[in-house]
Design brief:
By secondary structure, the chain is α/β, with parallel strands linked by helices. The chain is built from 9 helices and 9 strands. Helix 5 (about 140-160) packs parallel to helix 9. The protein is globular, with a radius of gyration of 17 Å.
């Protein structure tokens, strides 16, 4: 078995009203070809048939699929945290991460990302949506423009370290760092991705974040219609960033 397949990987997939968007066939193909991949789908109080579809999928693959259910909608931040902590408590994974149910980042990117952990210093790898020669990254221009402004402010003012894309919903962590950054509830409902970086910087004071975290350019990403994030949410940015900066004293 090659090194990238020697890790047991727990993958959390937050789901809210995904019945018409989630492609379980893609997850099925990944499960059949990657016996070291284990999926934890967390239904966040969906009002459609999401939970029923997920439970049927779990019956089909009981050894590699877990399904958790939030009785009411609590938001992506706590849904992801719930799933990550559940997988951590199983005490059998080397790496735990999360990705979006719409597979804007395809599942084959997992193997590419996990290669980063061949460097024993690396504790975190996160996807970065950069348009590059040979790549296939599709983003609507307005979201790209707002994302660049947002990332520049976050990188220079909040984190004070170079990060191109904090918001890509594709992140993986060595289990050794999970408790430090996922044990407490997130204070930001909208920008918990940034909060993960804040917690890493705050708790890993003896390590340079550039040494333990790696930004991985993903080869394929598609802006899938039906996103729960609205453009109006960007007006919350200044207040959320100030809250994070004051709370974590960065």
């Amino acid at each position: 078995m090659d090194s990238k397949n020697s890790y047991k990987i727990g993958i959390v997939v937050p789901c809210y009203n995904e019945a018409k968007r989630i492609c379980l066939d893609d997850f099925e193909k990944n499960i059949q070809t990657c016996p070291n991949h284990f999926f934890c789908f967390v239904n966040d109080g969906s009002k459609d048939d999401t939970l029923t579809l997920l439970e049927q999928f779990m019956v089909k693959f009981p050894n590699q699929v877990y399904v958790l259910n939030n009785e009411k909608n609590i938001g992506k931040a706590e849904t992801v945290r719930h799933g990550v902590n559940y997988m951590f408590d199983q005490n059998k994974f080397d790496i735990i991460g999360f990705l979006d149910a719409d597979l804007a980042t395809p599942l084959f990117e997992i193997k590419n990302a996990i290669l980063v952990f061949e460097n024993p210093q690396k504790q975190i790898v996160f996807g970065s949506r950069i348009k590059h020669l040979g790549g296939n990254v599709e983003r609507r221009f307005i979201r790209y423009l707002l994302g660049r402004i947002f990332a520049t402010v976050v990188s220079n003012w909040v984190l004070k370290t170079a990060v191109y894309d904090t918001q890509c919903g594709f992140k993986f962590f060595k289990t050794t760092i999970i408790k430090d950054i996922f044990s407490e509830e997130f204070i930001s409902k909208w920008f918990f991705d940034i909060e993960l970086f804040c917690r890493t910087i705050q708790t890993q004071k003896n390590s340079d974040i550039n040494e333990i975290a790696q930004e991985k350019f993903i080869s394929t990403w598609k802006d899938v219609k039906g996103s729960k994030i609205k453009l109006s949410d960007y007006f919350k940015v200044p207040f959320e960033l100030i809250k994070l900066k004051l709370h974590y004293k960065l």
